[in-house]
Amino acid sequence: MTDLIAARQQYAETICQRAGVRSAAVVHAFATVAREHYLGPGPWQIFDPGAFNTPDSARSLYRPTPNADPIHLYQDALIAIDTTRFLNNGQPSAHALWIDALDPHQGDHLVHIGCGTGYFTAVMAEIVGSSGRVTAIEIDPELASRARTNLAGCSNVQVVEASGCTFDFGAADAIYINAGATHPLPLWLDRLDVGGRLTVPLVRWPGNPREASASGCGVLIKVTRDTDGYAARVVSLVGIFPCIGAVDPEADQFLSEAFARGIDAGQKLVLRRDQHGRRPACWLHGDGYCFAVD
Question: pTM (2 decimals)?
Fold first, then answer.
């Protein structure tokens, strides 16, 4: 057990250093939450990105852990949840970066849309603490059931089997969208309290987002609501599964045009919701939303 505790601490420090995390609370949460509790019994299947570089098309995209010792899970790697759907528990350093960008605080009401089996939900629940609460939303019935079981010991978490695009979760201090959208939904923006933060992957879908193995690429945007409107910035590149209900063909085309214009990590933006004509400052101009260069 001592070795496992040490491995968690080393893992947390490594992934957070890799991500440039500033918050000690994020490091502590990753060092505290047991990843194995959310991934089912071992041995586990680890995603192997090197498999893409082999001429052997029959080679598996996964490699098994040597045994069922959970110490193997404490590396910056994707772990399979369902290999048939290429569904994984995401890369820890990427989530550490995005959670740090979301800037959750003790006492926050945090909403996690696309909670999967609950691992990153538990990390964020640790950060908001007993004075805060997490609403974890998952549209997939099997994943929602697993999350509900896995998170039963977290008294500050409620798991809801629903679409995060339509379920009204009430006022929120922080919203973590763990699936790719072509545009920010009005529900998400409306429910942000003043001072609230939203992180959303804006992702292109050149194929069919409803295919089991669909994934898209884009950028993760942080939106902050203030008394005068919404500030935004680009956090990082992202590759992720679709947020069904937040993928629209017209918005996808607008996003394609925006990406063609280019955008850099760290770029500051303003999110406008008023109706206005397209202007040179409009990076992503859609119906009822516009990310403009600040």
Answer: 0.94
